[in-house]
Amino acid sequence: MPDTLEPAGGGRYPGDMDARVAALEQIARNTVGTLARLEQRFEVVDGRFKGIDQRFQTMDQRFDAVDQRFGALERRVDLLISEHHADFRWLIALILGQTATLLAVMAHGFHWL
1: pLDDT confidence band, cut at 50, 70 and 90? Predict the structure, then answer.
């Protein structure tokens, strides 16, 4: 029984293997070139993404600054609200005091007391 791996015609490869190997070698060369172009394109895309990342970092810094300003504004509003509540309590106490005084004067004038 003849060995199927050994070439019958005495060449390096059996039958049409030389053409097949040459085609595969050409495909490998084309693939290397294609991979090199793809790598260059991916580097360009990576550069664009780095630029976008930098823009987002800049926007984050701006938003942080705005957050700090709003924090200061919220503290001021809280202070104004607490002052407003204090003024309101003082005003209510004044109104109630004047009303009590008026009622006391009326009660005395009408001899209710």
Answer: very low
The CA distance from 70 to 18, in Å, is 76
H or E element at residue 104: helix 17-109
Per-residue pLDDT of 43-62, as tens digits, reads 999 999 999 999 999 999 99
For residue 17 the two structure tokens come to 């293997």
Model confidence pLDDT, tens digit, residues 9-29: 556 666 678 888 888 999 999
In angstroms, the CA 87 to CA 5 distance is 104
Phi first, then psi: give them for residue 2, nearest 5 degrees: -75, 150
Q: What is the pTM of this model?
A: 0.43
Distance CA 75, CA 72 (A): 5
* 107, 113 contact by CB (below 8 A): yes
Residue carrying the six token digits 């987002």: 56
Integer Cα distance of 43 and 64 in angstroms:
31
